[in-house]
Amino acid sequence: MKKKTLKATLFSLVIGLLMLVSACGATEKATSGGTDSKEKQKLRVVTDAAYAPMESMDGDKIVGFDVDVLDAVLKEAGYDYELVHVGWDPLFVELKSKRADIGISSITIDEDRKQTYDFSVPYFESINKILVPEDSGIQSGADLKGKTIAVQNGTTGQAVAEGILGKNNKDIKKFENNVLAIMELLKGGADAVVADNAVVEEYVKNNPNKKLKVVTDSSFPSEFYGMMLPKGSKIKEDIDKAIKKVVENGTYANMYKKVFGSEPDLKELEKQY
């Protein structure tokens, strides 16, 4: 009886050791990096949620096309994230100081910004347009000379206005966001607003009682939005691959049609890669 018990005990020990070795192997695999580890990395993403339909507040939730793109891209890249509304100017400060990992807020990729920040490959084509009252005689950018223009400070809309009226011209009124610039137009403090097409077209569509219209000037150049990253960001390659994948597999086109009701020009977008 004693001998039989000893054999059973040894057998149990062997089985227990095998189970322990197996468990140790599983633990190493789960914590050894690669996709499993990357899925647990949480990125801080900052935005200025005052730019409908690209990003805006719906109660305490940030919604919009940029948010849809961000979510699809980071899922594809295997990252978790926290999206925080910080405002336009603080967004740049957070990325420059590397307190944030990504900025997404309809940010145009330009040479000046590329001196300080990295950018993903482009994910959206945009162009500045002119918002004016329905009875305005302004029909082009040239007609803005001698007029008062409201813009969001630090945007390419400001750059377009300065290209027409001159840098630091007193007739260019700068605001914290486009909502405030449009309010200035509505109360008669400006003759026009210059801003991205998606923003002004969305405003006119949603506010027909304001009696505004959008003027297109074909001489205004196309721009491309990118996700802005701190200089030297190690996630740029992952983000670039994920954007291209989301465009290639049709996810991007479906999101675009849902928000804008038309097909995106993917060939023009992919030319920028």
Automatic annotation (TrEMBL):
Q: Please state every residue range assigned to the domain named Solute-binding protein family 3/N-terminal.
A: 42-263
Under SMART domains, the record lists: PBPb, PBPe
Task: Name the UniProt key words of this record, in alphabetical order.
Answer: Lipoprotein, Palmitate, Signal
- Superkingdom: Bacteria
Residues in the signal sequence? 1-26
Q: Where is the Ionotropic glutamate receptor C-terminal domain?
A: 42-262
Recorded protein name is Basic amino acid ABC transporter substrate-binding protein
Q: Which organism is it from?
A: Heyndrickxia vini
